[in-house]
């Protein structure tokens, strides 16, 4: 990691540690205040705990033009992005996406869509509904490796991260605490519970928290719909297309609507927010990922609506191109943040256990 990013984040963390005005704002500050000296791993852990809600920045008395010139959300965002690039496998792909994300996402979707149209043209179809345009076997042959590759890539990155932050053996209690924080997205409500200041300096809002929840739960519903369809196909011999009141549709349609609404909301909030209170160099990559995920949802809903029309083959190619792009790019996009954030919360749960009263470590952490 570039030494200047770590040094600047360390300088600001030391000042925040002396001030302690923001002690209850989010998970970052209790963890920060447990330290007296910050290692590189400590800074990386704090950066991945940060959700860039910006409440601390707008409450801080030491921002510019003060000589301390604090901008902790920006410093941690830069370290966070750099850590993802460093831990990613292969790393050059992450650096490219964070810089040119929108262009890469658009090119990937169009390129894969043309590939699917070409496969259809040479005769891979066979079946009813969507399978009349692209056979089930062709879909499996393409998407199975595309699903497994990002899992392997993320596993390598998370292992590197865990070693970097000094992670210990994971226990059930650590997972329960971390998943509880993710489910509620508690840190986006800030310590006072009024929300954060992401889009406006003087206005507390839960908008970003609710938008993230729409995206997360919408995505999980869509994933559950795909899983249900897989079980029905292989376990019960019930093949697509499925009706409106089938489990895949009952899960997938609401999930798609939530995902589309959440990504659109996040994109609007990002356009409204000050880019200089974050990592401005990664803004294009973050927006590219949000738009890609939104297009996956919108194209999936459009595909369902147009499934019985002549537009179905083209819409299917565009949707599958978006889904394939999403899978292959996941380890290098903002989607990786969800996994690193979870890992950071698990490590933070360990830190709380290690420094709990009666352990003998609370004074030396």
Automatic annotation (TrEMBL):
Transmembrane spans: 103-122, 142-162, 214-236, 251-271, 283-306, 312-332
UniProt KW Membrane keyword: yes
InterPro entries for the chain: Citrate_utilization_prot_B, NarG-like_sf
Keywords: Membrane, Transmembrane, Transmembrane helix
Protein name: Citrate/tricarballylate utilization protein
């Amino acid at each position: 990691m570039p030494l200047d990013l770590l040094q600047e984040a360390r300088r600001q963390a030391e000042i925040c540690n002396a001030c302690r005005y923001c002690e209850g704002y989010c998970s970052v500050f209790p963890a920060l205040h447990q330290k007296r000296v910050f290692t590189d791993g400590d800074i990386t852990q704090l950066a991945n705990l940060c959700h860039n809600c910006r409440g601390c920045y707008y409450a801080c008395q030491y921002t510019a033009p003060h000589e301390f010139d604090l901008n902790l959300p920006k410093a941690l965002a830069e370290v966070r992005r750099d850590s993802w690039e460093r831990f990613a496998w292969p790393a050059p792909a992450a650096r490219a996406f964070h810089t040119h994300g929108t262009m890469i996402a658009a090119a990937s979707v169009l390129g894969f869509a043309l590939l699917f149209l070409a496969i259809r043209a040479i005769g891979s179809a066979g079946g009813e509904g969507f399978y009349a345009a692209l056979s089930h076997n062709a879909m499996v042959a393409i998407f199975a490796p595309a699903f497994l590759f990002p899992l392997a890539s993320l596993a390598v990155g998370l292992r590197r991260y865990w070693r970097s932050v000094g992670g210990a053996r994971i226990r059930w209690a650590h997972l329960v605490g971390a998943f509880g924080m993710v489910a509620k997205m508690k840190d986006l409500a800030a310590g006072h519970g009024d929300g954060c200041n992401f889009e406006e300096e003087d206005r507390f809002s839960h908008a970003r928290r609710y938008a993230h929840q729409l995206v997360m739960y919408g995505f999980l519903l869509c994933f559950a719909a795909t899983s249900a369809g897989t079980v029905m196909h292989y376990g019960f011999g019930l093949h697509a297309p499925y009706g409106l009141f089938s489990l895949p549709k009952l899960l997938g349609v609401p999930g798609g609507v939530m995902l589309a609404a959440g990504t659109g909301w996040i994109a609007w909030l990002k356009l409204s927010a000050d880019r200089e209170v974050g990592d401005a160099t990664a803004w294009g990559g973050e927006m590219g990922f949000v738009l890609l995920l939104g297009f996956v949802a919108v194209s999936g809903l459009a595909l369902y609506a147009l499934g019985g029309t002549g537009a179905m083959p083209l819409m299917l190619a565009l949707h599958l191109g978006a889904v394939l792009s999403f899978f292959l790019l996941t380890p290098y996009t903002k989607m990786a943040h969800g996994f690193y954030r979870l890992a950071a919360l698990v490590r933070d749960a360990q830190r709380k256990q290690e420094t709990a009263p009666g352990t003998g470590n609370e004074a030396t952490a």
